[in-house]
Amino acid sequence: MILWLLIFLGGALAVVARQTAALRTARRLHDLREERSNLEARRADLERRIRLASSRQVLVPVAERSLGLHQPADSEFVLFVVPAPVTAGQDRP
Amino acid sequence: MVRPLARIAAVQFGFALSVAAILARAAQLQLMQGDRWAEQAQRQRTERVVLPARRGALYDRNGVPLAVSQEFYHIGIAPNELANPRSTGQLLSRQLGVPWPTLQQELRSKRWIYFNGPFTATQVERLRRLDGIHLTREFQRFYPSKTLARPIIGGLSPDGPAGAAGLELALDSILTGQPGEAVLLKDRAGRRYDSPARVIREPVPGDDVVLTIDAELQEIAERGLEEALRAMNAAGGDVVFLDPTNGQLLALASHQSGTRGAGVPRASTFTDPFEPGSTAKLFTAAALLMHRRVGPNDAVFAEGGSWRMPITSSGRVRIISDAHKTAGNLTLARTIQVSSNIGMAKFSSRLSPEEQFEMLRDFGFGTLTGAEFPSESRGRLARPDKWQPKYTRASMAMGYELGVTPVQLAAAYGAIANDGLLLTPTLVREIRSPSGDLLYKHEPEPVRRVVTPKIAAQLREFLKGAVGEGGTGEEAQLVNYTLLGKTGTAVRFEGGRYIRGEYTASFAALFPADHPQLIVIVKIDNPQGNYYGGLTAAPVTRTMLQQALASRRVAIDRSRLTVQDNGVRGESGPAPSAVSMARIVLSWPYVAADVKVTPLPVPEVAGQSVREAALALHRRGFRVNLRGLGRVSRTAPPGGEPALPGTAVTVWAE
After folding, report:
1. Which of A25, A37, A90 to mutate to test the interface with B (most CBs of B within 10 A)?
2. Distance from CA of B563 to the nearest CA of A (A)
């Protein structure tokens, strides 16, 4: 009889422990999802700000006003020509 | 007195009856009504929810995000559940940007306050743990650059996550994912808990689409157009950049009066046909060459710049005049160079209306281009049986009575650049699954061969004259590079009539002159002051090309450009000007001549964190394209495969 009672109690404790662990894991998962969501939102916001800050709309007026630069004519810049990609096994010229 | 045995028997019977009743009831509940009660219990403990699927993202050709889906929140507040209404209210006021007195008033007077927002995860981060604050999550579309290419990208319907305009509508079935379904556990207080084992169906995110748009070139086009419209006080305009070798549309900018600075303009590059004027002369020239109705030395009399063209046998005439008065005779090449209406009207009389119509039709006018844009206009090209004899033929040759969209015009000039082969213009470069697998890659789609390569070369020679010395498009010419082009100036046709004193100026360019890599169409509606295409649209084209060349990020094959251009100038192009600079050709990254670069095996980084993986790859000299966060699942090229240092390794992480 006592043995049966112990088995029952053991089983009940195992179920409770398992449920507790599952709920804890679920909460942790929920927290991680929230954190990922926060980080993604922050990344999107930063990307937007970087994109805006590095856009011509922002940079060109600043460069013109603060540094006295201007949009170059094609006679005012030099192109450094990048050679075609070297395929495997072929030496770079 | 009843005997004890009998009493015991009665009690036993009573017990037995009770047990039987209990068993019967248990059998009824378990065996007969079991399913119903189980279902009810399930409903009380669990809740079935729809898991929204993330809509696929739109990227430019270099991976710059143009439209992404992001989690946003709506907020509900139950004032009676707030533990500390004052401090929570002040926090809410700060986070949501709601004035504190207003919020305070609402907290006192209402039982439920709802803020539709939508608010970002960052905004609600500090509110998540508070009692009485109820967040509703949903995916919403986010455009990192609010204005960049918006007329083309379009937007979503305000009623739901479906595309309503532009590419969001055209690509809706690709971008839309499949929502999932899950069962959440609920406790006694009704609080909900995620349970990984209870997901019935995972949501499937939509596929990502890589567009052909080049964000940098798009910005150059939008900015260039806006500045030009402001300087010319024009009513609107369009710019198209197209790669003639594959039909990919690289940039599309549109502006209409009233939308500058506010609202999203129409994608008029696709939707608004205009009468192109002289930019369409080349297509009649193509018909004349194809049907051999004109020889290299054939010429027509220029009439001194004004001609009374007979249109009926009864003596009715149409007065045709040239802006650039020319004496003597005009060959076809000279006619294109000085953009003579009289020359084109006279040459076009050698074609039948059917021949002229077929050539315009073959260049794609009057039909949809096939680009993935939902509300594209066909333009306007009447059938020859609807033409007024003589009158319409001359009009068509001069670019009137014909409506074309800027994209149609770009595709037609693309055919001339592409040795006569008309390609379908496209906006979609690649489609990728959420895990990064390539599902579709654009390949050039030929529509038809419009003219032979030899005639296409002849037409390009005509264009060289049009932007050369004495040509109407001289203002477009660069110092160090040559381009081909044709100007156009047409009286504006709106609401079924021509508007006196209002013009549409346009310019079509092929850049560079040899093996063109870009087709540029610039159209300006009703510029004030100078209205000729050669003085308005042509300089805008030059400025935009200069900016594109100076930008490191615009996809122009500069090595081919330099080599080709040197050749052109050496043979027949203008001599380098005094201000041109010497060319210095360096290999990049710089490697001493005697050093051999050998392929190295890509490090095996699967299972590592993205930070560790990036470090390992950088140490070996590889560049890293990151897709996702977390642990690395695979790379391309895969680990162990040899690749040259400097190769971009794509890393997928989950």
Report:
1. A37
2. 10
Tell me the C-alpha distance between B240 and B232, whole Å.
19
Q: Is the CATH number of domain B49-211 3.60.60.20?
A: no
Q: Please, are residues B371 and B249 in contact by the beta-carbon 8 Å criterion?
A: yes
Instruction: Looking at the structure, give the CATH architecture of the domain made up of residues B215-571.
Output: 3-Layer(aba) Sandwich (3.40)
Task: Tell me whether residues B142 and A33 touch, CB distance under 8 A.
Answer: no
Q: From CA B616, how far away is CA B597, in angstroms rounded? A: 19
Asked whether this complex has an ipTM greater than 0.85, the answer is no
From chain A, pick out residues whose CB is under 8 angstroms from the CB of B558: 79, 81-82
Domain boundaries, chain A: 8-68
- Give the orientation angle of helix B453-467 with respect to helix B281-290, to 10 degrees: 140
Residues near A73 by beta carbon (within 8 Å), at least 6 away in sequence: B478, B479, B546
Partner-chain contact B120 A41, CB within 8 Å: yes
Which of B141, B480, B627 best probes binding to A when mutated, by most A CB atoms within 10 angstroms?
A: B480
**Number of residues in chain A:** 93
Nearest by CB to B65, which of A26, A27, A47?
A: A47
Query: B229 CB contacts (<8 Å, ≥6 apart)?
Result: B236, B237, B255, B260, B524
**Token reading at B409:** 């015009």
The confidence score (pLDDT) of residue B197 equals 58
Number of alpha carbons in the 13 Å side-chain half-sphere of residue B43: 6
SS3 B402: strand
Q: What is B600-653's CATH number, 3.30.10.20, 3.40.1280.10, 3.40.50.1240, 3.30.980.10? A: 3.30.10.20
d(CA B216, CA B76): 41
User: What pLDDT does residue B539 have?
Assistant: 93
Does residue B490 contact residue B503 with C-beta atoms inside 8 Å?
yes
- B497 CB-contact burial (10 Å; exposed 0-12 / middle 13-18 / buried 19+): exposed
Chain B residues near residue A81 by CB distance under 8 angstroms: 558-559, 562, 585-586
> Is the Cβ–Cβ distance between B407 and B276 less than 8 Å?
no
Q: What is the distance between the alpha carbons of residues B317 and B310, in angstroms, rounded to a whole number?
A: 4
A28 CB-near residues (< 8 Å, 6+ apart):
none
Identity (one letter) of the amino acid at A93? Answer: P
Residues 6+ apart with CB under 8 A from B490: B274, B275, B276, B277, B278, B399, B400, B503, B504, B506
Q: How is residue B199 written in tokens?
A: 């997901």
Name chain B contacts of A27, Cβ cutoff 8 Å: 193
Whether a cis peptide bond, with omega within 30° of 0, leads into B353 is no
Q: What are phi and psi of B228, to 5 degrees?
A: -65, -45
Report the amino acid identity of residue B38: A
Mean pLDDT of B416-420: 95
Over residues B541-556, the pLDDT tens digits come to 999 999 998 887 887 8
Tally of CB atoms within 10 A around B249:
29
Rounded CA-CA distance B545/B156 in Å is 33
Report the pLDDT value the prediction gives residue B331, as an integer from 0 to 100.
93
Give the tens place of pLDDT for each residue, B128-142.
878 888 888 888 888
CB contacts, 8 Å: B120 with chain A: 41, 44-45
> According to CATH, where is 3.30.10.20 located in chain B?
600-653
The answer to whether the Cβ–Cβ distance between B144 and A47 falls below 8 Å is: yes
